[in-house]
From TrEMBL, chains A, B:
Gene Ontology cellular component list: ribosome
Coiled coil segments of this chain: none
Translocase in keyword set: no
Domain JmjC: 92-220
One function term, GO molecular function aspect: metal ion binding
Cofactor: Fe(2+)
Biological source species: Gilliamella apicola
Identification of the protein by name: 50S ribosomal protein L16 arginine hydroxylase
A Pfam family this chain is assigned to: JmjC_2
Keywords: Dioxygenase, Iron, Metal-binding, Oxidoreductase, Ribonucleoprotein, Ribosomal protein
């Protein structure tokens, strides 16, 4: 009973992706909410799950972080509950991200779900990610403005960064099965009309700053021997206090060479980009299985399930999962990526069994309990 | 009564600089030690001054860091006292680095002075810097080996990294006024014959790792707005788990663009490379002078002295001192670099006075007390 997305991806990518916002009407026909408000409220009671309640009562914005014990004081209007990375914790909700798996997976962040009462929303704001907002039950009015680096942003509350008034280029109500796509940087504001649920499938990329600083840390840890600037062709400079242009170029070249080193860069990026952006539902096996035990369980017919939304990427002839290199040939990696369920016959050779034993003990795959 | 260096710089740079070690005999004719062992021992009693005593008694290496209170237990042989950055603290000793000021100043580290008794030395080792070792009073036997990345290094003591046996390509005794030049990476060992003093003028460069990590920190602090990876030309990939080669190139390009940005790079490098490598003799003015006071003192004829070995560099049309930008025109900066003593007539215009007031209050220049 998964929802089916109908979208002309070529048209969408050509005309909208990271270019402009759009409403895709009825993209999920006969949309069925994969989660109920009560289930969402239940998830927000868990310590490991990131959640927020935002209220706007009498024009005053307030925001609180979960976990939450009780919702009874919140009344009927002007509050909403937002839960991050629901795809990590709720199997049926996670099916909503499936149709978006055609987009480069290294850019996928999570499925955020919000339940809103009449008049509620998080206020006008700008995000650092691209988002597909799928409307579930109920209806919301969305106003989206154009991209503009000069918008002033301000804290409506210490946990709510809002944006000043903007002229909407989209101002419409959306209902179950409609999608609003908003690229990074476009201001937007959604206000619930009655009770509603909406599902934000988010894609986040890396900033130059994060890239440089993450890579620098990696290089420090992984190239212990210093590569020193050397200039055996030095001529006496006319002004020894002046750093010469060619010296600056040489210094920059040294840094750029590190980045251009594919072994260094790829290994770093693979590990870096597969680190979880939100807590995963990972439970290491304790005590760890040994190889015999592991093989026996598999032979008895138990199947291995991959932890929902654990990050995997392939780069060149290798692959990474959750910050680790996967030391397996590409054909096995392809299998691990494609199949969310694995069984013994697929994993029989010794190398695969040993690697999978490690990943199962780490909790990246687990045996189905049924 | 400064010592005079005679050296054919063109020949030296062409044949030896960062290429191979050499002994320059009698480079300082009639060399006069600018400091006595007693004065050196006195400096090593100061908290702010880095010093070490290394002993090798009965084949056992030991090393201790200063400050030192007493030397009387050390005996007559097999110990030496090494004091770092003496150019920061002892005017006459500092004159020894003057003749080396033709070498790019951004690479200069410090003047290290060692006093050694009969048989003493720090043992065979490899350094991460280029050094001119000027022999003062007494005599040392130096054995220098060839460069080789495969030498094994080991801790002869937790503070002494030694290198395994090597075949000497230089094995000679040097006496007062001789210079031994050793480029980075060549193993060397000096053993004192009788009592001796030696003066190490060191040049240190930046490693790729330091460069990248320092610049990354700067970028994080100075480019608060994230520059996000964007790919509006995205086509659906055949394998969404695979990071495509062009995506990796784009990611690297983003990082490289930061490095190639001259405003960012130059400002960072100027600040970074002028940070002190060893504590400076800086005493901020307390309470700070105000402009009137400052101008009056200058007008009364007092002269300003620059703190010895405070780091200054010029990059393009600006300059940096001790981690700060100098907001003055280049002709004033040239003056500040060339003259170690400044007087009122040179500093009269308002901008210069204001900037110098700030630097004097920070302790970068000080009034001569005489
Ligand atoms: O669901 C909401 O109220 C806010 C959604 C939103 O702004 C987003 O996903 O970027
Ligand atoms: O003075 C000494 O004993 C050691 C000098 C030395 O090895 C150096 O300056 O690199
Ligand atoms: Co948003
Ligand atoms: Co040395």
């Amino acid at each position: 009973m998964s929802n089916k997305l109908t979208i002309d991806w070529d048209d969408f990518l050509t005309n909208y992706w990271q270019k402009k916002p759009v409403i895709l009407r009825d993209a999920f026909s006969n949309f069925i909410d994969p989660i109920s408000p009560e289930e969402l409220a239940g998830l927000a009671m868990e310590e490991e799950i990131e959640s927020r309640i935002v209220t706007n009562k009498n024009g005053i914005w307030d925001a609180n972080y979960g976990p939450f014990i009780d919702y009874s004081h919140l009344g009927e209007e002007n509050w909403s509950l937002l839960v991050q990375a629901v795809d990590h914790w709720h199997k049926q909700a996670a099916t909503l991200v499936e149709p978006f798996k055609c987009i480069p997976q290294w850019q996928f962040e999570d499925l955020m779900i919000s339940y809103a009462t009449q008049g509620a929303g998080v206020g006008p704001h700008i995000d650092n990610y691209d988002v597909f907002i799928i409307q579930g039950k109920g209806c919301r009015r969305w106003q989206v403005g154009d991209r503009n680096p000069n918008y002033k942003q301000f804290s409506a509350h210490k946990a709510l960064l809002h944006v000043e008034d903007y002229l909407p280029i989209i101002d419409e109500e959306i209902t179950a099965g409609d999608i609003l796509y908003i690229p990074i940087g476009f201001p937007h504001n959604g206000v619930s009309i009655g009770e509603s649920l909406s599902y934000s499938v988010g894609f986040r990329t890396q900033t130059s700053q994060e890239l440089l600083s993450g890579f620098a840390d990696y290089v420090i840890d992984n190239l212990p021997n210093g590569i020193f600037y050397q200039d055996p062709d030095l001529k006496l400079p006319s002004d020894p206090y002046r750093i010469q242009p060619y010296e600056l170029e040489k210094l920059k070249g040294q840094m750029i060479d590190l980045i251009k080193n594919p072994a260094l860069f790829n290994d770093w990026f693979g590990k870096h980009i597969t680190m979880p952006m939100h807590e995963l539902n990972i439970i290491p096996v304790d005590p760890a299985y040994d190889l015999d035990e592991f093989e026996e369980i598999l032979q008895s017919g138990a199947e291995l399930y991959r932890v929902p939304s654990i990050r995997i990427v392939k780069i060149d002839d290798t692959a990474y999962i959750n910050g680790n290199k996967i030391p397996l040939p590409m054909e096995t990696i392809d299998l691990l990526c494609e199949s969310e369920v694995l069984y013994y016959e697929q994993l029989q050779d010794e190398q695969t069994l040993n690697v999978m034993l490690e990943f199962v003990n780490l909790g990246y795959w687990y045996f189905d309990e049924e």
